[in-house]
C-alpha cells in the first residue's frame, strides 16, 4: 500500500476492508446526540411559551399595566385597599311611616280645632233620620253668652269652666221636641269638668220654625255628655205641655237619638281636619 496526497487509496485486489461495525456504532452515536438536542430544544421552547402565557394572564387580570412581583404574604388585605367596604352588604336606615293623625286631637284644643264652626256645620239639612225615625229640624242659634241660654245651675257651671260659645238646634217628631245645646271650651279638660258637674239644670229650649215653645214650665228630660273640647246637652219634652216621666220611653228615645247624632257630628269634625292634615303635611 502506498500513501499519497489525499489519503489512502483502495483499489481492486487490495487485502484490507473497512471496519463496518465501528462505522455503524459511530453513526448510531451521532443519531442519539441529534435526538437529545432536539428533545432539549423542544423542552426549552415549551417552557418559554408557558412563561409567556403566565405573564399574559397576570397582565390581563391586573388593573394596572404591570403586575406586582410581591409574594402573597406581602400584599395588602382587603380592609387596607382604598375604597374597600368593611360591611358585607349595603345597609339602609330603617324608616317607619308616621302614624295617621288622631281625629280627637283636632277637637280637643282650640289651638288645633280651626275649622269653621256654627249651628249649620254641626246640624246640617232640614231633617234628621235615625233608623226608621225622621225628625224635622226647627230653629238654630248660637251665642257667646253661654249662661244666657241655660237654666241657673247649668249657667253657673258653663261660666265657671269658661265656656266660649253655645250652639243650639231643635228637632221634633210626633209631639215630642228636643233642643241640643253644644257648649264650646278651649280645652278638653274644661269640657270634661263641665259635664261631670252638670247633674242638674238644662239648656234652654229653642222654639221656632214650626216648633212651639216647650220645657219652660214643665218637667223635661236632660242628658249631659262631652267629647273633646265640646260638652253637649239635650232638653226633651212634650209640645203639649205634659211632664216627662220615666215611663215615657218615646221622650227618652228622642233625646238619645239626638245625643248620639251630636257626638257623631263632633267626631266627624275631627276626622275632617285629621284627613286634611294627612293629605297636606307641613
Question: Any chance you could write out the topology, listing elements then pairs?
Answer:
Elements: H1 20-61, H2 119-122, E1 127-130, E2 133-143, H3 152-160, E3 165-173, E4 176-184, H4 188-197, E5 221-227, E6 230-238, H5 249-279
Antiparallel strand pairs: 1-2, 2-3, 3-4, 4-6, 5-6
From the structure above, extract its key features:
single chain, 282 residues, alpha+beta, 6-stranded antiparallel beta sheet, 5 helices, 6 strands, 34% helix, disordered N terminus
Overview of the structural elements:
By secondary structure, this protein is of the alpha+beta class. Helix content is 34%, strand content 17%. It contains 5 helices and 6 strands. A 6-stranded antiparallel sheet has the order 1-2-3-4-6-5, with helices on both faces. Strand 1 and strand 2 form a beta hairpin. The N terminus is likely disordered.
Compact overview of the structure:
With 282 residues, the chain is of the alpha+beta class.
- Let me know the average pLDDT: 79
Low-pLDDT regions: 1-16, 43-47, 49-73, 81-85
Kindly, what is the distance between the CA atoms of the first and last residues, rounded to a whole number of angstroms? 132 Å
Order of helices and strands: HHEEHEEHEEH
The overall strand count is: 6
How much helix, percentage-wise, in residues? 25-40%
| Strand order across the largest sheet | 1-2-3-4-6-5
Figure out the total of helices: 5
Strand content: 15-25%
Gyration radius, rounded: 56 Å
> What coarse outline follows from CA principal-axis ratios?
elongated
The profile of the biggest β sheet is: 6 strands, antiparallel
Structural class: alpha+beta
Q: From the structure provided, what is the oligomeric state, counting identical versus distinct chains?
A: single chain
